[in-house]
Amino acid sequence: MNFSIRAQQLNTLLNQHQSLWRHNAYNEVSPRSFRDFPNLLVFLLNLSDEELQHLQANDRDLLTALAPYFPPAAELLALITLAAPLPHQNTEPPRGIPGRKWLQIQAFIDAHPRSDAASHSGESLPEVRLDNTAIIEWCSGKGYLSEALTKRYELDAIGLEIDPSLVAAGNLRASTAKHHRRVIACDVLSDQVFQHVDSSRQLLALHACGGLHQRLLNTAAVQKNPRLSISPCCYHRFNQGEYRYLSAQMQGSELRFSNDDLRTAVRQTKTARSGETQARRQLQAWYLGLRLILEEHRIATNTPLPSTPQHWSKTSFRDWLNAVLTLKPLELSLPANLTQYEKAGWQCLREAERIDLVRMAFRRAIELHCVLDSVLFLEEHHYHCTLSEFCASSLTPRNLLIQAEKV
Ligand SMILES: C[S@@+](CC[C@H](N)C(=O)[O-])C[C@H]1O[C@@H](n2cnc3c(N)ncnc32)[C@H](O)[C@@H]1O
């Protein structure tokens, strides 16, 4: 794969359609650029609830469904398509490791064929392989990934983790292990990291957030580690309010991503429980109902409103309104027939959710744009890279995997 060309194509497409992926359907009316696609709104507003839910959770199906009404979707689909995940093991999780996390760990490890593994006939394996070099697990939590790796292969591992309770719990788990493994208290953003990362070790990170995985890349560029494997997540975290390009190629780009834009990249709540989804939708409908009330009082509908905790969805619309108006604070008399506004809020929500599919159509492209920046940075530092999906997005939507080997 030519990463540079793909990054450039994504950059151009994202640049052209900024007004669409920056549009927040929950706050504003449809952007002017919707007029360029006359049948798009009709298609979106006629989607059933089941179709909506399916498309919200599936990038590829979403882009395929939009393409007849919104031609850029076909281009996006081609650009976000990567090597499909390899089949992975599915064994019982060891005591204490949550089932979904265990499946992600197994898929992550199985996406790294060993350097001594023979290729099955006809199956193309990633070119970057895992060998017995000692591992540093970046932002390891309790070190579940190291635990699984050291058990499966003969290698030593160190986890770096900032949270002392996770460090202690991880070391308790490691105390009976056959292979040498431990979790070290370390803020990877500080210089402490250089006490632990030397050029002999390979670096692995499963779900290291924005600034934390960028720090891994910068550290590797200095220490010249032989191998890296990173599945990035939460691009909006541990940065300074916006995405900061690492690669020389992307630093020349005019396209900027605020943290709100980066949140769009991870807006796929497939793993959220249905109770949480229900509570979130309830509050969204109430916010939209409140905006209708504000409009009638000639108060700007984009007035910032305080956010409320999810459990407030269990109160009534009236109690919630009173609480939000007190928090804001804003004095206004509530209309007598609140049920009507609550109903209208739900109707606005149904429309906003459908229109928001257009923003969602760009979320993987935004994510990939950031990940390609990391890959280009590694190439600029003489790493040979592969980029793939290590598991199905239903297991975790944060399923991109960069593997890199020092040339
Ligand atoms: C999303 S979790 C991933 C944990 C683990 N890799 C996993 O997949 O279960 C991110 C981890 O990074 C740790 N972390 C956050 N900031 C850190 C820092 N500055 N230095 C080291 N670890 C950090 C958190 O405490 C947390 O355990």
Automatic annotation (TrEMBL):
Methyltransferase domain mapped to chain residues = 131-239
| UniProt xrefs under Pfam families | Methyltransf_32
Quick check: keyword Ribosomal protein in the entry?
Answer: no
UniProt-listed GO biological process terms: methylation
Q: Which UniProt keywords apply?
A: Methyltransferase, Transferase
What domain of life is recorded for the organism?
A: Bacteria
Give any GO molecular function from the UniProt entry.
methyltransferase activity
SUPFAM superfamilies membership: S-adenosyl-L-methionine-dependent methyltransferases
PANTHER family xref list: GLUTATHIONE S-TRANSFERASE C-TERMINAL DOMAIN-CONTAINING PROTEIN, PTHR13369
Recorded protein name is: Methyltransferase
Organism of derivation: Zhongshania marina
Q: What is the lineage of its organism?
A: Bacteria, Pseudomonadati, Pseudomonadota, Gammaproteobacteria, Cellvibrionales
